[in-house]
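Whiteboard transcription, Tuesday session. T.W. wrote the C-alpha cells on the left side:
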C-alpha cells in the first residue's frame, strides 16, 4: 500500500503533484509520503496488538530526521548500527530506552555513548565485542543489557548480499558457541544477559526460513532459562519483504505476526521487531528527468539526471524498481524497450535493462517507485555530484527536509596543505 497515484493525468504523492515538487526543488529528488509511513507503522503495531512488543524501526533504511520524527510520533523505537544513527533517533524524538544497538563493529566510544544514553539493549555479535563492552561498562560503573545475536545457519533474503543468517556470514555468534558465551556473560562484570537476538536477512518474501530461525532461537531461549539465565526478550530482527514489482506478493504482516505468536507460544518475553524496508520502502519515490534518448545498434538508452550515486540498489543488488512517467500514459500508448542509465562514469550506472516503457522524451520526468528504503540512505557524492534533496509530503503540503548542498558545502571539510597554498 502506498499513496502515489495518478490524479488528473499527473502522478501525485498524496494530494501534491510530483511535478510541483520537481519544479520547486529540481531533480533528482526523493519524495516521502507521511500517510504511507504512518499507515505502515500502524499496520505493524496492529498485528502485534496484545503482545509485549517493541517496534524498533531500522534507522539504516532511511535515517532522515523528518522520517524518524514521523515514526517516533507513530510510536516506533529505533534499531541503530552506529552512534550517529543513535543520535539521529534521539534528536528525532525516540527515547533512549526504546533504542536497540546492533552491528558487528561497535567501537568503545560508541559503547560509552550508548551506555551514557541508557539504551534498551545491545545486540552483541562476538566474544570480543562482549568483553570490550564489559570493560567499558565496568569503567563507567554501569551494567549493559545484552542480547547475543545468534547465527542460526538459515539462509534468506532477496539477494546473497543481504542474507545475514548463514554460517560464513559475518553476523552473529556461531550457533554452537552461543551457550558457552551466555555462561561468559554471567561471569563478566558490567553486562547482563536479557535476551536472544536473531536476524537472517532482508527482503524476505517467504516465512519458512524465518520460522526455522525463530524456532531455533526460541528453543535456545528456553534452554538458557533452564540453565539459569534470565532471558526476558526475543529480538526477531527485521527483513520482511515488500512488493517492488507488479505481481510481487511477499508474506503480509498479519501472517508474519501470526507465525511469531505461534513460535513464541507460552514463552513470556518481550518481542523486539526491527522493521525498516517494510515501513519506509513503498513510502518513497525518486523523481528524475530524462536528459537524452540515445539509439544504438542493439538497444535504446534513456539517460536520466539521476545516477547510481543517488540510487545504489540496482548497481549493488541488481534490484528492480518500477519506473512510472509523471504524465499518465494512455492505456494503448506504444512502448519502447529502454536501457535506463545515469550520467556516472561507470558501466554499473544502469537502473534497468530492456525495460518496456511508454516513450519518454527529453525533459519528461519519471519516478522510481519503492525508493523510500536504502535510497537516500545509500547515496553519495561520487563524481562530485551533490546529495539528492529529500521532501516530505503531508496531505496537500510538502516541505524540503534535506536540501541539495552547494559546491562550497560539499567541499567545506577539505583543506589544502600548507605546501599547496
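and on the right, the sequence the group agreed on:
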Amino acid at each position: 500500500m502506498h499513496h502515489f497515484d495518478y490524479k488528473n493525468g499527473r502522478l501525485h504523492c498524496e494530494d501534491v503533484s510530483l511535478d510541483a515538487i520537481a519544479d520547486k526543488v529540481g531533480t533528482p529528488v526523493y519524495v516521502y509520503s507521511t500517510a504511507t509511513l504512518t499507515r505502515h507503522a500502524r499496520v505493524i503495531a496492529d498485528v502485534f496488538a496484545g503482545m509485549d512488543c517493541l517496534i524498533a524501526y531500522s534507522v539504516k533504511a532511511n535515517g532522515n530526521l523528518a522520517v524518524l520524527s514521523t515514526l517516533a510520533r507513530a510510536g516506533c523505537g529505533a534499531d541503530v548500527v552506529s552512534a550517529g544513527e543513535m543520535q539521529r533517533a534521539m534528536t528525532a524524538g525516540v527515547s533512549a530506552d526504546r533504542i536497540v544497538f546492533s552491528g558487528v563493529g561497535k567501537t568503545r566510544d560508541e559503547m560509552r555513548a550508548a551506555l551514557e544514553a541508557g539504551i534498551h539493549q545491545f545486540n552483541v555479535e562476538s566474544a570480543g565485542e562482549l568483553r570490550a563492552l564489559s570493560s567499558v561498562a565496568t569503567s563507567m560503573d554501569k551494567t549493559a543489557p545484552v542480547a547475543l545475536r545468534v547465527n542460526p545457519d538459515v539462509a534468506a533474503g532477496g539477494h546473497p548480499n543481504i542474507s545475514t543468517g548463514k554460517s560464513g556470514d559475518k553476523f552473529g555468534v556461531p550457533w554452537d558457541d552461543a551457550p558457552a558465551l551466555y555462561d561468559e556473560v554471567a561471569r563478566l562484570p558490567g553486562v547482563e544477559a536479557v535476551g536472544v537476538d536473531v536476524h537472517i536477512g532482508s527482503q524476505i518474501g517467504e516465512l519458512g526460513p524465518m520460522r526455522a530461525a525463530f524456532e531455533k532461537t526460541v528453543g535456545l531461549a528456553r534452554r538458557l532459562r533452564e540453565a539459569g539465565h534470565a532471558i526476558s526478550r526475543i529480538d526477531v530482527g527485521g527483513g520482511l519483504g515488500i512488493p517492488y514489482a507488479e505481481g510481487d506478493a511477499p508474506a503480509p504482516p498479519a501472517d508474519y505476526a501470526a507465525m511469531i505468536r505461534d513460535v513464541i507460544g507460552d514463552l513470556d518475553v518481550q518481542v523486539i521487531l526491527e522493521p525498516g524496508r517494510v515501513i519506509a520502502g513503498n513510502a518513497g519515490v525518486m523523481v528524475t528527468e530524462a536528459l537524452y534518448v540515445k539509439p544504438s545498434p542493439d538497444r535504446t538508452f534513456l539517460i536520466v539526471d539521476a545516477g547510481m550515486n543517488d540510487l545504489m540498489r540496482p548497481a549493488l543488488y541488481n534490484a528492480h524498481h518500477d519506473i512510472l512517467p509523471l504524465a499518465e500514459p494512455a492505456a494503448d500508448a506504444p512502448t519502447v524497450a529502454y536501457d535506463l542509465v545515469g550520467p556516472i562514469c561507470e558501466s554499473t550506472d544502469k537502473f534497468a535493462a530492456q525495460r518496456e516503457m511508454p516513450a519518454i522524451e527529453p525533459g519528461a520526468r519519471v519516478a522510481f517507485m519503492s525508493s523510500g528504503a536504502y535510497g537516500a540512505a545509500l547515496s553519495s557524492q561520487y563524481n562530485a555530484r551533490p546529495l539528492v534533496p529529500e521532501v516530505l509530503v503531508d496531505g496537500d503540503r510538502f516541505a524540503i527536509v534535506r536540501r541539495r548542498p552547494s559546491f562550497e558545502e560539499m567541499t567545506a571539510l577539505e583543506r589544502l596543505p600548507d605546501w599547496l597554498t
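Someone added at the bottom: The longest strand covers residues 284-296.
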